[in-house]
Design a protein that fits this description.
Elements: E1 12-16, E2 25-29, H1 38-42, E3 48-50, E4 56-58, H2 68-72, E5 79-80, H3 89-93, E6 109-110, H4 116-120, H5 126-130, E7 138-140, E8 145-147, E9 153-155, H6 156-163
Antiparallel strand pairs: 1-2, 3-4, 5-6, 7-8, 8-9
The structure holds iron/sulfur cluster (SF4) (2 copies).
């Protein structure tokens, strides 16, 4: 939905495999929307900032392209437009908004922004809407409710406690707002031989 330019991966999906017997599993890496966000701390012009609702945004109209934020982000979540991205008429017809981050432009930084325009409408982000495996939940930690593609709403606290949820590289003190549920209770194919 964001007309993400070629070469950028707002959610990069890594394939993990812990040992040769176990099946592989997947690790999607969006922007973690860190509460203690190193990207926002280093931005010299305030183009990257943390909103009260928890979303970390980038205002391309203020960004000067210094790329300090890319160096500061330990998750590799940010991309820089070295060249003018290709455009579609639909993208160019849109009025730039910091909540959309398009039309895209050369010389600025971009990243996953948790689809704030959809959140404003009470909808799930595009990734959660598209995840027909119902693997992605999105919600409000203060209200303690998260919801997936199937419309199933559960307690965030209970989900994390029961499934052993964790945040990625939380020891860095970034206070990421994305949690992962580790692969558990899975039935693996029997090892050959
Ligand atoms: S994941 Fe990176 S870009 Fe996103 S808020 Fe954290 S430090 Fe900033
Ligand atoms: S590249 Fe843009 S958003 Fe990143 S630190 Fe520099 S001015 Fe801020």
């Amino acid at each position: 939905m964001h007309f993400v330019p070629p070469g950028q991966e707002w959610i990069k999906v890594f394939k993990n495999r812990d040992n040769h017997v176990a099946d592989a599993y997947w690790f999607p890496r969006p922007c973690m929307q860190c509460d203690n966000s190193p990207c926002a701390k280093v931005c010299p012009v305030g183009a990257t900032f943390k909103r009260e609702d928890g979303i970390v945004l980038v205002d391309q109209e203020r960004c000067i392209g210094c790329r300090y934020c890319i160096a500061a982000c330990p998750y590799g979540s940010r991309s820089f437009n070295w060249v003018e991205p290709p455009h579609t008429p639909q993208e160019l017809a849109a009025k730039y908004s910091v909540e959309l981050n398009y039309p895209h432009r050369k010389g600025v930084v971009e990243k996953c922004i948790f689809c704030p325009t959809l959140a404003r409408e009470g909808k799930l982000p595009a990734c959660a809407q598209a995840c027909t495996m119902n693997a992605i939940y999105f919600g409000d930690q203060v209200e303690d409710v998260v919801t997936n593609h199937a419309g199933v709403s559960v307690s965030f606290t209970q989900l994390i406690r029961e499934k052993g949820g964790f945040s990625f590289m939380e020891d860095l003190g970034t206070e990421p707002r994305v949690w992962y549920l580790p692969p558990r209770d899975r039935v693996y194919a029997a090892p050959k031989g």
